Amino acid sequence: MILLFVCALFLASIFIGIPLVWAILITAVVPIFVFDLGYPLQALFLNFIGGVEPNHYIAIPLFIFAGELMSRGGVGQRIIDFAKAAFGFMPGGLGAVVVGASMIFGGISGSAIADSAAIGSVMIPAMSKQGYKRAFAGGLVAAAGTIGIIIPPSIPMLIYGFVGNVSVGNLFLAGVGPGILMGVAFISVCFWVGKSTGVDPGGERTTPRAFLSAFMGSLPALLMPVIILGGIFSGLVTPTEAAALAAVYGLLVTLFVYRDLKVSDLPQLLVDSFVTSAVVMVVIGSTSVLAWLITLEQMPQILIGFVQHFSSSPFMFLLMVNLVLLILGMVLDPVPAILLSAPLFIPTAQAYGVDLVHLGVIFTTNLAIGLFTPPVGATLYVASRISKVGVLSITRAMAPLYIAAVIVLLLVTFIPAISMGLVWLIR
Amino acid sequence: MDTDYRAQYPAVLRWLSVAIDLAMVTGGALIILIVFGNAAFRGFGFDLAWSLEITALLMLWVTFLGCAAAAARGAHMRVTEVVAILLPKTAQRYLSIVLSILISVLLLALIYFGTITAAHMWSETTTVLYWPIGLSYASLPVGMLFTLVFHLFNTWLDATGHGPRDQGQLSETEEQGREGLA
């Protein structure tokens, strides 16, 4: 009963427009009075501040700052040049460039929205000029941009790792396979669209010299994920220190190598990054309050009992996880969706023997799809704004991309080797 | 684009907003430098034991001041599409006032309990620098106080038809949501 009440109250608070941080706190406070639970209100404060306090959370603003640095300069154009050299020759080549560039850019910025904005502003007009429908071009940018949160570094994965006490390094590694698979699936759709409509039959192959030149131009940016993953896996730095390293490296590259930014731009960039981080952090704090209530009232146990009542098979459990997360992803951004659902699903997944790293990748893949599904799809809106096409038109044009994404999601869910292969290798 | 209220603020609130931004720039830059410095120094065999305490303190202050900065920018995450599509403008305004009162009560409770706890913890000190733990805990009531100030003024602007939405500045999501669903 209390679980149902909490879910209903939360959804009602969200849909009437209460900002997420306050909606979660209201969801945590009201049941204490309604069910006369007798918990002291001071505990709410202690859990709120305690939720923000852990030192490793410092990685969140630092990764956001590093991503902002790389997104604001001309890194996007250099990566597009490199992707054109790599994919431009094939049928549907311009679409493949969008996907390839998004995958690379995602590895640098870690943000789907930055990814869609940086790639979309250049590529949607280019695809439209080539003869692609603007709705498809926008849809492709919206979908491909979300690969950025599957491929490491990924802020949603970082947060899942902190919430679930799961190795961030392993999560980052586990995201590589599914990210590449999602990219290949989207490139296949582009190949089919380019060939079947005849708008993009493919161009000439790039000469090795031009390819090398494009590669060298984007190399300083391409080194960012290498430094982050290399630092963590070599044991030289913690994920938090890797984030600081990425921030300092990003500063050096954008200020002194690419010279896209001036020192005078930095204060604004810092404020923007730390405001974004604060918005996420206070939601983390409020979720800690809700998680405290959830734990005290043994809601995960209620959920486990409820799910096991229907089936004891992990297959059915994972199918249910996918369904719930897809629906949640339609109305919430990945970070709050993870913060709200992970405390409920992680104990249940453990009861079913599901690896928590694998579960983290399933979470991220589902919520990446949620980012380009209406009614609340952040990259969908970015692409809609750039392409100047309505969200519904873009959504209709994206049908083949949705099908490809759901197929990849099912493969990632039911073939653990896709995500866990690299993790098993290093374990 | 957020529904940024700062352009409509009187001078005092604009100064407060700028002061908060300055504090965040300083705090943010120090966090980056200290975390990076600690990693670099460890490479040479030094460990800056105080770095964890300072970065934890800065992080709390930057987060809760950032909460206020986000309120001024109308940047807190929220789902506005459902109300924007289902309710007429007048009903939206009344709903917004009711919700605003609810949020203000919540903020007042956080300020009250936060102040009591920070005062209570002021005599406790950290293990390396011997700084009062209450200094960290004070970040929440202070941040929430500034958030409340901005929140109340935002509510006033919305209620009197001077908010950014009334000036034709819709959030990107709302604007596109309407366009797409229309």
Outline the secondary-structure elements.
The complex is a heterodimer of chains A (427) and B (182).
Chain A: H1 2-15, H2 20-34, H3 42-52, H4 59-72, H5 75-87, H6 93-109, H7 112-130, H8 134-145, H9 155-164, H10 168-197, H11 208-233, H12 239-257, H13 266-296, H14 299-310, H15 314-331, H16 334-351, H17 356-371, H18 378-387, H19 391-397, H20 399-414, H21 417-426
Helix pairs in contact in A: 1-2, 2-13, 3-13, 4-12, 4-13, 5-6, 5-11, 6-7, 6-8, 6-10, 6-11, 7-8, 7-18, 8-18, 8-19, 9-16, 9-17, 10-17, 10-20, 10-21, 11-12, 13-16, 14-16, 15-16, 15-17, 16-17, 17-20
Chain B: H1 11-43, H2 50-72, H3 81-86, H4 89-121, H5 133-137, H6 139-159, H7 172-181
Helix pairs in contact in B: 1-2, 2-6, 4-6
Short descriptors:
heterodimer; A: 427 residues; mainly alpha; 21 helices; 79% helix; B: 182 residues; 7 helices; elongated
